[in-house]
Amino acid sequence: MSFSPFPDYKFKSILDISTDFLNEKEIKLLLLDLDNTVSPYKTQSPEKAITEWVEGMKKADIRLFIVSNNRGSRPKIFAEALGINYIGNAKKPFTAGIMRAIEISGFEKKHTALAGDQVYTDVLAANGAGIRSILVEPIKFTNFLLAVRYALELPFRRVKKGSDI
Fold first, then answer.
1. SS3 65
2. Boundaries of every domain in the chain
3. Mean pLDDT for the stretch of residues 26-34
4. CATH number of 9-157: 3.90.650.10, 3.30.70.120, 3.40.50.970, 3.40.50.1000?
5. What is the pTM of this model?
6. Torsion of CA 23, 134, 126, 143, to 10 degrees
7. Would you call the peptide bond into 46 cis, given omega within 30 degrees of 0 as the criterion?
8. What are phi and psi of 83, to 5 degrees?
9. Residues 157, 10 contacting (CB under 8 angstroms)
10. Distance of CA 153 to the CA centre of its chain
11. Which of 68, 77, 82, 130 could form a disulfide with 1, with the two C-beta atoms 3.0–4.6 Å apart?
């Protein structure tokens, strides 16, 4: 377990994470941040591209699981729409939500990764839990404070532990 802010892998979008990449890395469980990773903030249902990406993952036997800090109904709404499990109010960067998702799913850590858009929550949580971290670019900057947070993450966004595709 590491308290590293550096991601193992980086992609422009969640949609750029392919089944080939996950199979090559022997990742069978992909934990997903919701807000600004899978969908922009305040969107109430998954876009068609996400639904198709999820279906492709399922066909390739990649299990998906939403692990979100969102305390509202959004994680449940998206999980039900996509036909996957979820944990809301995960309190990332703490690892309890991640560990619970791994336990529920029945996979080993070595076959698990978390994809998210924020270094200080998603990457720290994944690395702290001893799973691989995948950093994606945020879908949309919705407010000034979020833009500042992303700016503070720039040094960590430019460097990675692993290698990109």
1. strand
2. 9-157
3. 98
4. 3.40.50.1000
5. 0.89
6. -150
7. no
8. 70, 40
9. yes
10. 16
11. 130
